[in-house]
Amino acid sequence: MSISFKSLSHIYNKDMPYAHKALDNINLDIKEGSITAIIGETGSGKSTLVEHLNALLLPDEGSLEILDYNIVANQKQKFLKPLRKDVGLVFQFSEYQLFEETVIKDVIFGPLNFGFSQQEAINKSIEALKLVEIDEKYFNVSPLELSGGQKRRVAIAGILACDPKIIVLDEPTAGLDPAGSKQIIDLFVSLNKTLNKTIIIVSHDNEMVYNYCDDTVVLSHGKVVYHGSTLDLFSDQKLIEEFHLLLPQIVQFKNELTENGFKISKEARTIEDIVGEVIKQVKK
Fold first, then answer.
1. Cα(first)–Cα(last) distance of the chain, in Å?
2. What was the pLDDT predicted at 243?
3. Would you say residue 123 has pLDDT above 90?
4. 3-state class of 158 per DSSP?
5. 2: left (phi over 0), alpha (psi -120 to 50) or beta
6. Which residue segments constitute the domains of the chain, with CATH numbers given?
7. pTM, whole model, 2 decimals?
8. Partners of 228 in the β-ladder
9. Strand 61-66 and strand 215-220: pairing?
10. CB 52 within 8 A of CB 170
11. 132 by DSSP, 3-state: which?
């Protein structure tokens, strides 16, 4: 396992009268090379959980094993810089973190900070900007002159240029139009499939979770209440009701077909898949 939480808890304002246990005894293994969603209601602990992955937050109890690093509560950590290179965290509205005078300088900042040579940083940055489809004509433009979607892609390029093994996305499509959202998610799916990057996505967008994620973790009040196959989760009416999940439209459509006598497999994830199964049954 590339990521393993072991009895991990995190307490905000520890030892204060208004202390709050944001994570409570988390035991969780996330598969290497998977696309895993973290979902749950607001305040369930999603962002707190993923901020442990590159040690922005440290556990108050328990431990976290990630790649070759072991983070243990109340022990001094000596390897935070290499960990943060290997685990790239893309924050919600990450474009607000852009600060350099040009796009290329902003993207180069990360690789230089992690010890790449100037030329290596430039090469990595150009490669990352091309991956996120930022035209070369923007490289020497101020990030402030870009559109919202372009800014988001530049911020993501700054993470990709560091060549992380694990990429963590906190609401990566927030504020983007449908086309921009699809472009961003397709990019990370491609990185997962072609380079075997482990992708972890915090999201409220169940449509995206259903369409793209292999596994899903559901958090509630700082506890893991479900971890398993995304398809299994959205095929189980009892779990959907228990966790108050909004059904993706494609699942609603499958349910309506089932109610009208068609047998639609759990694995049918797209309109094309469903239509193919319906046609076979109509012909019979």
1. 45
2. 93
3. yes
4. helix
5. alpha
6. 3-230 (3.40.50.300)
7. 0.91
8. 216
9. unpaired
10. no
11. coil
